[in-house]
Each structure stands twice: as C-alpha cells, then as structure tokens.
Amino acid sequence: MQSYQHSDKHLAVLGPVNAVPRTCSPRRVEAQVHLHSAENVHTAISGPEAEDRPELEQFVHRIFSAAYDADVKEFMPQLMSLRNTSGELLAVCGLRHAENNALFLERYLGNPVEAVLSQKSGQPVQRTDIVEIGNLAVAHPETVRSLLASISLYLHGTSTTWGVFTGIPTLRNALSKLNMHLLPLGLATLAHLPESEQAAWGRYYDEKPQVMAVKRLQPFSASAA
Questions:
Q1: Superfamily designation of domain 3-215
Q2: Tens digits of per-residue pLDDT, 205-215?
Q3: What are the angstrom distances between the C-alpha of 212 and each of 84, 137, 164, 204?
Q4: Residues in Cβ contact with 66 at an 8 Å cutoff, skipping those fewer than 6 apart
C-alpha cells in the first residue's frame, strides 16, 4: 500500500492513498492523519445516511452562523470530518464529484466547470477529474492546515486531479502557504444566486470569495519531505 506525505515546518500528513471511495457511500470511512504536533487527527468520510451526519451538518451551520450570520441548509453528498483522539469535532468540509452532479459553484461560472478549467489551465480536463470542495467549517483557525492537508490526501486517494472551491482570502492564503498553486476561475458574487437564496448567506459575500482550482500535488517521498 502506498502512502502520501505532505510536510512543511508545521505538519506532516501520512496515510493510505488507495482506500478512499469516489462514490458517496452511506457508511463512514475512516483514516488517520498524523501531525508533527501533539496529537493525531482522525478523518472520516460520511455519506447522507451516516449516523454522524446530523452532528456534522449542525457543526457547519453553527460555524457559518457565527462567522457570517449565514443560515446554511444545503450540504454536499459527502462530508469529511476531522476529530482529535478525544472525539472532539475540529473541522468539516463537503465533497461532491463533478462526474455525478452539477456543482454549486458552476452557477458562478456561466459554463460547465470542465470547460472553464480547460480554458484557464491550457490542458484538457474532464468532469471525472474534478471534485468540488465546500461546506468548509473549522472550530479553530489553527485547524485549517490540517483540514487542507486531509483534502490533499483525499484527492490522492480518489485519483482526482482537480479540486475546485469558492474561497475567501483567508482560505486562499492558507493554501498558498502550503505551496499549493491556485488557479482563479472567476468571481463568486451574491448576484449569481436566486434572490430567494441571497439572505441566507448573511455577510459571507462581503468577504469577496473567488472560484478557485487547485491541482493535486505529487506525493512527497520521505527523503524529500
């Protein structure tokens, strides 16, 4: 079994890269993310019928409500969760594969995401190469790096080339510090949403989010880390 390790001066991620399902299983799939810091972070992928879905959705709702006065009621088919060894929920993000679904962020682009990504990257991209990342919620700012590293591990585990997401400056800066090359795809504005949905997002769009793409990194060898 191959392993993937990503490291900078703050953290390293090590885990299996061929054990994560692309399809949305109702079951909860677990892996471990080992950090240089004091504790391990346990990751899991929860489908719509997983027992912990209500907890994860409530967590996302609470974080968005506190940060932006937003009322999030729609959640992606798969939710990735990070917990410490005591079981405390640290972070959640949603995952949606483009091959099976229309993406939420495509409403910002005006064209299919694979067409925009092909044009911006200068290389052919298929929908099967893309996963949308959303519902990003963290309890503490220092958890952002752990969550992003776990997402990178997920991309390797599912052989997905591109992750696409709507990111505010804080998230974009965190990705840049992990040496991930970000490709801007377009602006995400409140005007792209139906009027009936706009009020539910509170102050989120005041943060000037952009639609971004990040290409899967090549695995680091232990000697290169």
A1: Gcn5-related N-acetyltransferase (GNAT) (3.40.630.30)
A2: 999 999 999 98
A3: 29, 17, 6, 16
A4: none
